[in-house]
Amino acid sequence: MTDTYLRRQPTGLLRDNSSFCLRCGDSRTLHLDGIGQEIWDLLEYPVSHDEVIAHLLASYDVGEAECRQGALSFLAELESFGLLLHVPPPTVAERQRNRYLHLLKRTLTSLVYPENALRISRLEGGTFSDDKKTRTTQMVQVRYTDAEDYATCTLGLRLGSPALSNRSFPRTLIGLAGLDNIEFCAEQIFADGIPGDFLEAGVWQGGASMMMRALQLSHQQENRSVWLADTFDGLPINTAEPDIRYGVDFSKENFPILVAPLRTVSDNFRDLGLLDRNVRFLPGLFAETLPAAHIGPLALLRLDADLYSSTMDALNCLYHRVSPGGFIIVDDYGLPACRQAIDEFRETHSILDPMQWVNETCVFWRRSGAGG
């Protein structure tokens, strides 16, 4: 009998103290413990029951019968919440692509070496030994000697915690859920043949845009372009009334960590083999660069502009370019000023397409037609 292959449904991800939970519909949530998180991670790409059980047996000291019962019970619970898809078995080529994208996401979020953030924190705080040999041992073993802090750090990187950005130095702060969301949208775009390029307005270190280009290349969609619109000099000073009213000020004087020059972003693409002629940079304020840019149809528009003014500028210049069936992602809908811009724009243009949550701040919707 052929084993069933499963993949998780896209769903909102919420922080729950020292772990996280899944948003199931508008009101229900499902808490995940450590093993639950591990199974959820395995469902990132198509996986069989037997593969889930084999992974858990390799990771934990548990009998096969007990492991199988627990795993199948949890998978049944996920299915009862509508969180699983039954999918065909992946081909060899698809498995290779999935492994690449799995590793890329963890590279962009600094989850490949999460303990480095702890090492920097301990060095800054002077909590390591003054003896060089002892200090070296402490640095090597910090994952295990500071297990609780390591778990907290890993959770923060998974969710994209800005507090870790000056110690872990990720290429993106949107977390795994944000990268998964880009992948979900791209897969739908490719499967349905939605025409157009991808564009991110507000790119910071370029991690989300790097994910976009990697998806295009790995799915043989290399003729599409990825556009990166940003000042590449930090966020502008707030001048719009809603930004001032809500006290929004992410300018580089207050948040120098948010400054990522174009050279830095370009080098980040180059480091991972993703820089080519279809990666297109638009440096400057949105209101000045976007109206004059020779941008064709867009299949994916991702807004990470933080401010009311920048969000509205990007929408006014770009929304009409999004193809029917294309996606709009708004990273900062959880911020009141950005939310006001989105809500006003959707109301003004009679956009009724339902929004879905990605995490606690990010939403997305799929454009249904020319009117919205």
Automatic annotation (TrEMBL):
UniProt superkingdom: Bacteria
Protein name (record): Coenzyme PQQ synthesis protein D (PqqD)
Species of provenance: Granulicella pectinivorans
Gene3D superfamilies, per the entry: Coenzyme PQQ synthesis protein D (PqqD) (1.10.10.1150), Vaccinia Virus protein VP39 (3.40.50.150)
Source organism phylogeny: Bacteria, Pseudomonadati, Acidobacteriota, Terriglobia, Terriglobales
SUPFAM superfamilies assigned: S-adenosyl-L-methionine-dependent methyltransferases (SSF53335)
InterPro entries assigned to the protein according to its UniProt record, in alphabetical order: PQQD, PqqD_sf, SAM-dependent_MTases_sf, TylF_MeTrfase
